[in-house]
Amino acid sequence: MSEVYAVRRTRLRECCNAGGSAAALVSRPANVRYLAGPAPEGAVLLLGRTDDVLVCPGTPDDRAPGTPGSRPDENLPVRLAPGANADPALTAAALAASQGADSLAVEEHHLTVSRHRAIRSAAPTLRLADIGGAVEQLRVVKDEEEISCLRIGAEIADQALGELLESILVGRTERHLALELERRLVDHGADGPAFPTSVGTGPNAGRRGHRPTDRRVEEGDFLSVCLGATYRGYRCAIGRTFVIGTAPADWQIELYDLVFAAQRAGRESLVPGAACRDVDHAARQVLDSAGYADALQPLTGHGVGLEIDEDPQLAPSAMGKLDACVPVTVEPGVHLPGRGGVRIDDTLVVRPEADGGPELLTITTKELLAL
Amino acid sequence: MSEVYAVRRTRLRECCNAGGSAAALVSRPANVRYLAGPAPEGAVLLLGRTDDVLVCPGTPDDRAPGTPGSRPDENLPVRLAPGANADPALTAAALAASQGADSLAVEEHHLTVSRHRAIRSAAPTLRLADIGGAVEQLRVVKDEEEISCLRIGAEIADQALGELLESILVGRTERHLALELERRLVDHGADGPAFPTSVGTGPNAGRRGHRPTDRRVEEGDFLSVCLGATYRGYRCAIGRTFVIGTAPADWQIELYDLVFAAQRAGRESLVPGAACRDVDHAARQVLDSAGYADALQPLTGHGVGLEIDEDPQLAPSAMGKLDACVPVTVEPGVHLPGRGGVRIDDTLVVRPEADGGPELLTITTKELLAL
């Protein structure tokens, strides 16, 4: 794995040098992990003029290590900040100056104003520049190792969801169902949930990001569930909607079929070279033309990886095109206030048609199940 | 409750006016909650020259509301940012300028450099100042309503821990025990865990912030558990260490007695007017004089409230004194690499001796239980 991190750092270095900075300080946790492997909380990476260094908080030895079984790139020198309350970013900046750099690119979208000022004081000879979203852009296209982590995470989420569907649901609360799903994710080998598990019943079903309440599942309800596993740091999402009871009502079948059609249209438009806004449009216009424009969300999907919500965004104003090997969610939904709604969410990887088209990672059935 | 929020805002306004700013923008989530009540994620508070306004993200109506059963101060006008991707802070800054303010105090320790720059562009006539930790300082001393939330949270954590102790522990993994504790917290009415539940067995026991692994509980192990409940936004902590099996070894009894003595010394020194560093010293010197100086943590306790780690810090270099009605943890510990260790953590409220001295919120026994 060490080589992978070194290659990534080289790419970032080229990017910084092109921007006129000899050194870069990476502080955003997912970016540090991408470039240095699993590192202790609060660690920062210095891409130095001569050497790269991982600077970790100066906590005592009995501090908990990172994710079990994982560690940072072993070829990367590690320094400790001088004390538990010292900011590793200041150590890194001083190190950059001592290596003879005259400018340092930092992540202005992650550093607070106070921290930026402290870095300036710690290394007054350095000109501070902005690295912008350079690391985030490198992270968009995944290698097969990364996709494999997402694939395993998706399998785990499928398993957890599948087991829940075999149990009795009526009478249980949204909160209990969500907790049980999260326990099952861990049972099946996830590091943990990829994001807070969402379970919505009845009028809450289909709400994006709904936080589970004490409402109990009742006969005739829509039940929507959205969960994901984190596996080796990589996060995926799956969302499904079910009907509770033997016979879905007509309005439920109609709404489900509509959202399903929208989600399929989005999935089918995932080809390398497609504009992100066109994928969004493909899903959105199905709902739009059925009169649900107002119920629509700001986006119908987004990238996933070390964070659950990464570039690219599938939204009306999104810029840019999809590349092969970019994993995204496709997750349109409709929620009718007071009645509930439907959300269907898959994680897929963009692949060329020659390779069989988009690779579906979350394979739980999307038939409307009556449970 | 509305009056409470209004009084808090008045105190902050006095603080800002004294600092020369007519208006303030509060963005740190716990600070927004303190001054405006439970608000949607991403909301910011403008303490304006003429009016106070809560500015929320412009998400569609079916966006999940805040914590169930709670809502922001109803006397506070609410504005929406113009779109789901628009930053409410920019709307708030423009509003401040339109009210005729010439300067705006912002939270430089929370705003990123990029966001600060965007605020400057959105309201170029405003001089941006730093409000510093003004809201955090207001939050240190709690009112009885806040303490009551902490007390209920502590009861919930005590219940969850008590139930776990009645079950069979040998053979179960740290991860499963942690998940079960979190489920029980929610069962008993918590909003959720106050922080990731820590369960450490054998060589992992006593590690501060240990993340649960797949190690199983064995006969003869130390088992240390640290958990907390969030109740109406308020977070408490309890930590206990147990021995698994019928007879603790001599070294286990000795180590336990030592940490217990240190923790008691810390608790007993919690009086209004005590210097924070003296409370730390009281606990620390017990371990120190027994030769465990190297194993010590940077702090032996900290404030709790809307966040799990607030001012004051109980640490050797801490400044300031304790006031009545300040809730703090007292949590010394010793961890011996390869062997495990002991940590004991309580949440208490500083009270004058006339009122009976420090109020212990977490009442689970601190006897060394052999389970």
From TrEMBL, chains A, B:
Renumbered to this chain, region (Disordered) spans 192-214
Q: Does the entry feature the keyword Protease, yes or no?
A: yes
Going by the UniProt record, its keywords in alphabetical order are: Aminopeptidase, Hydrolase, Protease
Residues of the Creatinase N-terminal domain: 8-141
Domain (Peptidase M24): residue spans on this chain: 149-351
Q: Name one GO molecular function term.
A: aminopeptidase activity
Q: Which InterPro entries match?
A: Creatin/AminoP/Spt16_N, Creatinase/aminopeptidase-like, Creatinase_N, Pept_M24, Peptidase_M24B
The source organism is Streptomyces thermocarboxydovorans
**Taxonomic superkingdom:** Bacteria
The answer to whether the entry has keyword Kinase is no
Pfam families in UniProt: Creatinase_N, Peptidase_M24
Name this protein carries in UniProt = Aminopeptidase P family protein
